[in-house]
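Supplementary Text 2. Reproducibility record for the structural model of the 399-residue chain.

All settings were left at their defaults, and a single model was retained for analysis rather than an ensemble. We include the record here because the model underlies the residue-level annotations in Supplementary Table 4.
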Amino acid sequence: MIPLLPRHLTPALLAAAEQLPIVSLTGPRQSGKTTLAKMAFPGHSYINLEAPEVGEAAREDPRGFLRRLPGPAIIDEAQRAPELFSYLQLAVDEDETPGRFILTGSQNFLLSERISQTLAGRCAILNLLPFSVAELEGRPARDPFEALQGSPAKLESSLDELLFRGLYPRVHRPKMDARSWLADYVATYVERDVRLTINIGQLDLFQRFLKLAAGRTATVLNLSNLARDVGVSPPTIRNWLSVLEASFIIKSLPPYFESFNKRLVKSPKIHFIDTGMLCFLLGIRKPSELEGHPLRGAIFESFVVAEFTKAFLNAGEVPPLYHWRDHGGHEVDLVVDRGRWIDGYEVKSSETIRSSSFSGLSWWREIIGERFGRGGLVFGGTEALPRGEFTAVPWNRCS
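Retained model, structure tokens:
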């Protein structure tokens, strides 16, 4: 077993628990939520609603369930008992002790309008994704708005090995067969979480959708095309994509647009958050198959977007991340809105950099004008390469 690595979200989690009576800690299954909650709050009792009798008690008698708790509590898999939330509101209105309840769950249950209104002003919302590269290496967190400014990570794994395994904590245990673990993970996700979230008559159709969506990672979403290939309606695809996002399987990267007097693409890009799951869904069986794979560049781009996303979420920030593309084919893979300044980053998986790699950034700089902040290229090499007004930054510095 690998040692318990410090999680960068810990300071934000503790700070939230000093301010509000309820803290919601959500994220995908097996991202380390329960471990983090127990480590951060050793004095809290631990209640797991996945235990059938416990979940039933919480659903059947939520008032009595909360009254019988011995004190501050971690309530794991809280989405299993949505009946609790109204009574949590009543409980914390009577006793506003900060950090009284830590709710964890493998779905972003606070996306529910009813629940978010019930707990508004009483609950802090934090998300824990799988390891970042920096966490895996044991490096301290840094300001997410200062991305790419620090030293590169020094990992034993090659880039392709890391992309293949992904960053779920369990796949980095000694002798763990990453592909077998991911196969079980996907099966469990589809058969349990999806079935609980939406009524799907044919799970094999959803599995087909999942694989076809994986083939579209790092691309601008076209609902109609995806619906046609899966064999369902566009509204169904939109619903299924929302399920993937609520369970932290994908991130939808919205377009960035202002009045630039350009015809802009205003559809989001979809990115799978974990490249290990992505490689499994794409049928990649070993790291060496990534070399020359037609989707290696897209897999790498999703990896970079996920690392930026983790850096912001771990700091307790909403990720101000976008993509930009116009109908003339000019694009910037990742846009970071820093308020006054707007940063732009291109992403290329190759270790060799050509001058044409910066063409999108050059175009972007002209359009954004005086609000242009930083610009750079994240690439698959290991040494920073200055290229005129921009710099090519190695992949292991993006976390």
